[in-house]
């Protein structure tokens, strides 16, 4: 399975240009997938640098209705008229971020709202045996404090966003299960517990921003960062974070989680290989069959000698 980060806030080793946003290209034996489309058409240029043909993409998942995750959708639809685009039905809501006390629009481009390639989802959806959308997330743990500055507008009223427009993608392919959680506005701990509850097992790999505050940390914020790292460390899962986690939260979590937490930058690429256990089972079966064949041949040759 090939996973390429086409858009992220920081520069990686490749020559891809970063921007504030997120976009992943995922290639399995059955699918070519985009998870989010960044804030602009920049992901198209980065895809060319990585020799990725986006006209071959068959599935797009928009994790939530913010411009830095769906801003490139218009450009994608112009170059690909076949892919299905999955998003929660409230993804085109009016979403704002408080900056210096004033609300600024951070929602999706309304021009793409009625495109026939878009599939609107309510809650969970099993796309096929490889792809599962998690849109119903129970809140067992506190949500990120950075959510408090993100608002939803209904009529003339601004209220704190409930993030019902957020969804995660669970990819089950080639003996691995990979969870893409966008910004994890519901809280990565809530998303992890929901995934295990829905699927019955822990994902092998999680790729997600953690949407933590990037400055002005209170003691409560610091405790939340440490608590998140400690709880994630109990999972038998490899975590890759990016985009909205913040440098200081990442550094603090890295001390606790060590190699179980890595940062993925713009242009970085992951190759997820089949589980060693599966390969071991293949070798074990080959050895067993080889033993059977040798036994049968011994019996035959022994019988002939008699």
Q: Ranges with pLDDT <50 over ≥5 residues?
A: 277-306
CATH architecture: 4-Layer Sandwich
Class computed from helices, strands and strand pairing = alpha/beta
The backbone outline, from C-alpha atoms, is: globular
CATH topological fold name = Metallo-beta-lactamase, Chain A
Mean pLDDT across all amino acids: 90
Percent of residues in helices: 25-40%
- List the strand order in the largest sheet: 8-5-4-3-2-1-18
- What is the C-alpha radius of gyration, as a whole number of Å? 22 Å
Q: What is the name of the CATH superfamily?
A: Ribonuclease Z/Hydroxyacylglutathione hydrolase-like
The H/E string reads EEEHEHHEEEEEEEEEEHEHEHEEH
| Most strands sheet | 7 strands, mixed
- Name the CATH class: Alpha Beta
Task: Describe the structure in your own words.
This protein is α/β, with parallel strands linked by helices. It has one domain: Metallo-beta-lactamase, Chain A, CATH 3.60.15.10. It has seven helices and 18 strands. The chain is globular.
Per-chain topology:
Blueprint: E1 2-7, E2 23-27, E3 32-35, H1 42-49, E4 59-61, H2 67-70, H3 73-79, E5 84-88, E6 94-99, E7 102-105, E8 118-121, E9 125-126, E10 131-134, E11 150-154, E12 157-160, E13 168-173, E14 176-180, H4 188-199, E15 205-207, H5 219-232, E16 238-241, H6 247-257, E17 261-263, E18 269-271, H7 276-305
Parallel strand pairs: 3-4, 4-5, 5-8, 14-15, 15-16, 16-17
Antiparallel strand pairs: 1-2, 1-18, 2-3, 6-7, 6-11, 9-10, 10-13, 11-12, 13-14
Helix pairs in contact: 5-6
């Amino acid at each position: 399975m090939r996973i390429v980060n086409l858009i992220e806030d920081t520069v990686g080793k490749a020559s891809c240009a970063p921007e504030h946003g997120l976009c992943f290209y995922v290639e399995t034996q059955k699918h070519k997938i985009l998870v989010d489309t960044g804030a602009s058409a920049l992901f198209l240029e980065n895809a060319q640098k990585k020799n990725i043909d986006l006209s071959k993409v068959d599935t797009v998942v928009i994790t939530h209705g913010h411009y830095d995750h769906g801003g490139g959708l218009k450009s994608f639809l112009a170059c690909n008229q076949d892919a299905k685009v999955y998003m929660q039905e409230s993804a085109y809501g009016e979403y704002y971020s408080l900056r210096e006390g004033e609300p600024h629009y951070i929602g999706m481009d309304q021009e793409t709202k009625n495109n026939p390639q878009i599939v609107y989802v309510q809650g969970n959806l099993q796309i096929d045996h490889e792809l599962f959308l998690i849109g119903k997330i129970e809140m067992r743990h506190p949500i990120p404090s950075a959510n408090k500055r993100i608002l939803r507008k209904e009529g003339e009223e601004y209220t704190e966003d409930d993030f019902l427009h957020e969804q995660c993608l669970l990819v089950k392919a080639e003996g691995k299960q990979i969870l893409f959680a966008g910004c994890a506005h519901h809280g990565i701990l809530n998303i992890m517990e929901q995934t295990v509850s829905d699927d019955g097992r822990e994902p092998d790999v999680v790729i997600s921003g953690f949407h933590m505050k990037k400055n002005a940390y209170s003691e409560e914020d610091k405790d939340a960062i440490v608590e998140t790292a400690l709880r994630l460390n109990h999972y038998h899962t490899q975590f890759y974070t990016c985009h909205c986690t913040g440098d200081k939260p990442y550094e603090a979590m890295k001390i606790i989680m060590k190699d179980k937490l890595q940062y993925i930058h713009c242009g970085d690429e992951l190759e997820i290989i089949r589980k060693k256990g599966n390969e071991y089972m293949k070798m074990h079966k080959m050895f067993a069959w080889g033993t059977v064949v040798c036994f049968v041949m011994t019996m035959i040759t022994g019988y002939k000698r008699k």
